[in-house]
Design brief:
single chain, alpha/beta, Spore Coat Polysaccharide Biosynthesis Protein SpsA, Chain A
Length: 308
Amino acid sequence: MTVTTSGNPQSDQLANLRPTTGGTAEACRVSVRTAPALTVILPCYNEVERLPGTLQTLLAHLPVIPGEVEVLVVDDGSTDATVTVARTVAAADGRVRVLSYRPNRGKGFAVRTGMLAAQGELVVFTDADGSYQPSDLDRIVGALGQAPVAIGARGGGGGARGPVARRAASRVFNLAIRGALGLPFGDTQSGLKGFRRAAGRQIFRQARVDGFAFDVEVLWLARQLGLEVAEVHVQAMERQGSKVQMVADALGMLGEVWAVRRARTSQAYGEVGPVPIPSLEAAAGAADLPPLAAVATPAGAPPALQAS
């Protein structure tokens, strides 16, 4: 496989996942894939106002080559017209796919649903409110060339931007996490994280937290599986209409983190240990992905899960 360099890490990463046209017919037969190189997941709950702008910005940035990328919108039981907006965009742009279900289950469940349904060699989830720029997505994709997991790290300290009270709460939460689970990361709650497909499947098939603390569980599982995690500096923009209620959600997240700690000590996760994760070159030459209907869904998945 030829490694290309264009100066754009996202474009380079997608190009390097594609086989070259040279070589024998047999080599081409084995290497050619129908799966996209990249899946971008947008977990949504009542995002009818902000989702259109996020999709417009994202789709304008991503490659337009058919089959190169997919944008997977996961509607987490919205009570507004979020799913209608998403399906309208999907009908006009073949790069967009929509999953929806009821009732609302939480961001962790939505991300897990998307991760297990994603068809890309690289899978990145990001916030539907457009908090992160396409350049931040590029950096995460670029980092996946060096590590199977890459996470955004916002600023310094606790990572969050915005009001002083929110930044202070974020710092306290990160310190509590370090003490409870021994995670070394400066920013566990960034809404921008990426995975090589095999690593993502290994992690999210074992994940169980449905709420906002799912990020913590995911990083803990990555550590238990012996996966390298790259931290990438990103710049999150403050957006109006945040779904996070600082005090109530912080207490709920701490409760979920404590539940992960208890499950760890009681071995409720079973045997979690290091697993081999194929390189990008090996992943690019693997067999085609199973159809969506054959992909495992999260435990307790609503029967009304719909794809469009």
